[in-house]
Amino acid sequence: MDITRSFADAVGNTPLIRINTLSDETGCEILGKAEFMNPGGSVKDRAALWIIREHERSGALRPGGVVVEGTAGNTGIGLAHICNARGYPCVIYMPDNQSPEKVEILKTLGAEVRVRPMVPYRDDNNYQKKAGRYAASLDNGVWANQFDNVANRLAHYESTGPEIWQQTDGGVDAFVSSVGTGGTLAGVSEFLKEKNAAVRTVLADCMGSALYSYVKTGEATMSQGPSITEGIGNSRVTDNLKGAPVDDAVQVTDRDMVQLVYRLLRDEGWFFGSSTGINLCAAAMVAREMGPGHTVVTMLCDDGSKYRSRLFNAEFLAERGLSPD
Ligand code: PMP
Predict the structure, then answer these.
(1) What's the predicted TM-score (pTM) here?
(2) Residue 235 phi/psi, 5° resolution?
């Protein structure tokens, strides 16, 4: 018998899927980790699980303790599931520029959601800082702190990286990933480069983010935005991203992302979210740069169901001049 015994045990070990249209067009194998098949529906289940385990192990999180986080949504969703399974109340601070679907899911899961106005990180009223202060005010409570808690990066070093290495029989030539906290890109890159220093690691940046410039110049300067993507892009270099062995960066526009997401839905039946669209556009760019015969791996971070009111809303796209052809 091969039985999965808990929510936590169902996290990870996702399939590695060949994206046929892009692979055929580039002459490379373009492969995506099906993170939308995690039990909470996104790549962030891994970070949520590692962060909670780390707080349990250190003794900071005791039975019945409150788990607090500032999150664009997916980390909160992963945390809310795991909190239910382990008996922790969950309080989520969210900026008010995220899709309403994510707020609804979090409430349905039983988390207390506190939506706050989106203000820059340097402002004391930023949702992440509010989460940190609230957690500090509690007797038995922890701040998950996904941006600077490197248990997040460790999740990908210990799970995603080894899975990719195994699933490609060590034949991966490049790894491409967008960055929110940087946990995915940093953890996977670190693992793959230890296995084979020649693996090319590339940051895929959306517009309105400072990470492309950080990789290219060493200075984090914001690019022209905005972007309708969610969960990715950053104005600062987090502790999870610092020191990550990243070779290069590419920038992807919302226009290209929307075109590809709709094309893959129409032609291959895949229903992907916006960060996955950015990742796949970038993977195709890297494949073209490297030339035919290479294996390029990226992340299929979540599916499109949380983005019905935006990415999959014709009016929303038309107002922004982003309607797919
Ligand atoms: N895609 C989605 C949909 C996300 O929610 C996130 C995390 N916020 C990412 C990509 C980026 O992952 P990471 O935080 O590991 O950089």
Answers:
(1) 0.97
(2) -95, -5
